[in-house]
């Protein structure tokens, strides 16, 4: 099978179930932004060290990436249609449980932190901001599964904690926001 089909050469693409829409359609923007976040998560994972804690984190991140792929599929589905795989409350609970577990080992925040630290944590911070953009776009989609909105919201929280967790495990100081910006 060839990777190129030439069907999008005139600025349209197919949603799930074959409906053709403009490539600037809100659904395409939303699932494309989820794909960006997913790619950045993968980049962050590729930067993790070869240590036991990182191997466990990679397994968790792969599960998150898989669910995020399916979130994109839900966003690519026209109103009134349903994909076979649907997001479930347990997918959101998994994020919450992991957030609670990872956050328990972190120093409490006493000031704002800036995105950064280790390369992997920086990638997770970037994925967090991309996820927030996906959430802002998805709000404009009529009939979207409400769990999609909850998942994207929780995913950005998860990625914030993931970045902090990675910095802590790698013993990299988090950049802090200083009151004096001169």
UniProtKB/TrEMBL annotation:
Residues 3-166 form the Cobalamin adenosyltransferase-like domain. GO terms for biological process: cobalamin biosynthetic process. This is Corrinoid adenosyltransferase. Pfam families: Cob_adeno_trans (PF01923). Belongs to the Cob(I)alamin adenosyltransferase family. It comes from the Bacteria. PANTHER family: CORRINOID ADENOSYLTRANSFERASE, CORRINOID ADENOSYLTRANSFERASE MMAB. One of its GO terms (molecular function) is ATP binding. It catalyses: 2 cob(II)alamin + reduced [electron-transfer flavoprotein] + 2 ATP = 2 adenosylcob(III)alamin + 2 triphosphate + oxidized [electron-transfer flavoprotein] + 3 H(+); 2 cob(II)yrinate a,c diamide + reduced [electron-transfer flavoprotein] + 2 ATP = 2 adenosylcob(III)yrinate a,c-diamide + 2 triphosphate + oxidized [electron-transfer flavoprotein] + 3 H(+). Its EC number is 2.5.1.17. It comes from Fictibacillus phosphorivorans. Pathway: Cofactor biosynthesis; adenosylcobalamin biosynthesis; adenosylcobalamin from cob(II)yrinate a,c-diamide: step 2/7.
């Amino acid at each position: 099978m060839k990777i190129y089909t030439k069907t999008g050469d005139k600025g349209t693409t197919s949603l799930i179930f074959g409906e053709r829409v403009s490539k600037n359609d809100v659904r395409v923007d939303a699932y494309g932004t989820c794909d960006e976040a997913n790619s950045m998560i993968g980049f962050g994972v590729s930067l993790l060290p070869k240590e036991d804690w990182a191997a466990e984190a990679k397994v968790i991140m792969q599960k998150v990436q898989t669910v995020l792929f399916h979130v994109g599929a839900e966003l690519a589905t026209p109103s009134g249609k349903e994909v076979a795989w649907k997001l479930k409350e347990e997918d959101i609970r998994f994020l919450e449980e992991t957030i609670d577990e990872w956050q328990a080992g972190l120093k409490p925040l006493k000031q704002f932190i800036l995105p950064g630290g280790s390369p992997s944590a920086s990638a997770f911070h970037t994925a967090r901001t991309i996820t927030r953009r996906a959430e802002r776009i998805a709000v404009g989609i009529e009939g979207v599964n409400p769990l999609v909105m909850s998942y994207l919201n929780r995913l950005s929280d998860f990625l914030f904690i993931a970045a902090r967790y990675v910095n802590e495990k790698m013993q990299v100081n988090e950049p802090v926001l200083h009151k004096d910006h001169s």
